[in-house]
Give the backbone structure.
Amino acid sequence: MANPSFIYGTAWKKDATTALVRTAISAGFKAIDTANQPRHYSEALVGDALAADRDSIFLQTKFTPFGGHDHRIPYDPQADLATQVSQSFESSLRNLKTDRVDSYLLHGPYSHPGLGPEDWTVWGAIEAIYKSGKAGMIGISNVNALQLASLIQNAKVKPMAVQNRSFANRRCDRDVRKICIENGMMYQGFSLLTANPYVLQHPQVIAIARRLGTGTPQVVFRFAMQAGMVPLTGTTSIEHMKQDLTVYNFELTAGDVKLIESIEG
């Protein structure tokens, strides 16, 4: 499965998940992101939506540590960490009605600002899933540059993907993105619109959108692509889905990219 250039995210869709994923696929999205975290995702409903399209869709899910769950935990919280990962992954396969996923992520480290023993144990279990052939790539979400550098330096199987929230006032996560570029890793950026409303309202971004005959959200998504990110969108509007996919129809200048990356809010 080829790496995606745009991903549809399924967080917080609840009972509408199946219909929205089907709508996203019909609009043209080729990649779907979810997680085995019932608190925020309805992973089994993603599986229902993909029944007829699994082989043509890049599918990514995640293992969520205990602290990220409410009372609905998809593994035995009393089990050792490696068993928790295994149980969660097998539950994901059942939910998604598949025998493998294209990408499997650790939803976030256990420790901060560096990595701790729990992170290494869990990463070892994720490495085992990759070595089994049941995950096409593995990676980590919500990670800082120090943690990512440590993982790259010390892991037996280095991460292949990172998924982080991208704030313009934090230089669009430039330090983590730089590490990803240097190591040939996929960087996925989420909350590109909701985390950066002032970018959408910036007069110069509005001027770029007018020049190109598009909207400011599409300018932001195109910026993300040209800056080396794979953007995620979680829109619930079919019209917005179609509009977002028009980003393949235009290109920003180098000056546009530099300008947007310099906006700090």
Notes: The first strand starts at residue 7 and ends at 9. The chain has eleven helices and eight strands.
